[in-house]
Amino acid sequence: MPTSARRSDCPISFALDLFGDRWTLLVIRDLAFKGKNSFGDFLASEEGIARNILADRLARLEAEGFIEKRPNPDDLRRSTYTLTERGLGLVPVLVEMILWSAREDPDTGAEADFVREATEDRESLIRRLQRRS
Known about the structure:
By secondary structure, this protein is mainly alpha-helical. Helix content is 56%, strand content 11%. It folds into two domains: 1-84, Arc Repressor Mutant, subunit A (Orthogonal Bundle); 90-133, no CATH class. The protein has helices at residues 11-19, 24-33, 39-43, 51-63, 85-88, 91-104, 112-120, 122-132; strands at residues 67-72, 75-83. Strand 1 (67-72) and strand 2 form a beta hairpin. Helix 7 (112-120) packs across helix 8 (122-132). It is globular.
């Protein structure tokens, strides 16, 4: 349930209230697909998110139960982030978005091996990504 008031009972509106801005799914992507797990890792992503926006999105994702923040065991001044079960539930959605974009965007950055694997055995790919995250 989002922490802010709902606009309607529409399931798409519900999803957009949770992760419908331009940055939230990119943080989830970085955790699920790119192995990033620290503030600095996310900050270094090619899209160029601002520090204050990143801090806000991480706090919101944690408050909504998509990610968990833990102290970094190697440096307790820093934190690491992991996907929760709720966050891992978005992996199939992101895989579908990647496949859709690969079909629709002639300049896509989707890796051909990933697209092939997702097309041939989507369920195995999703399970592997969810275990790895």
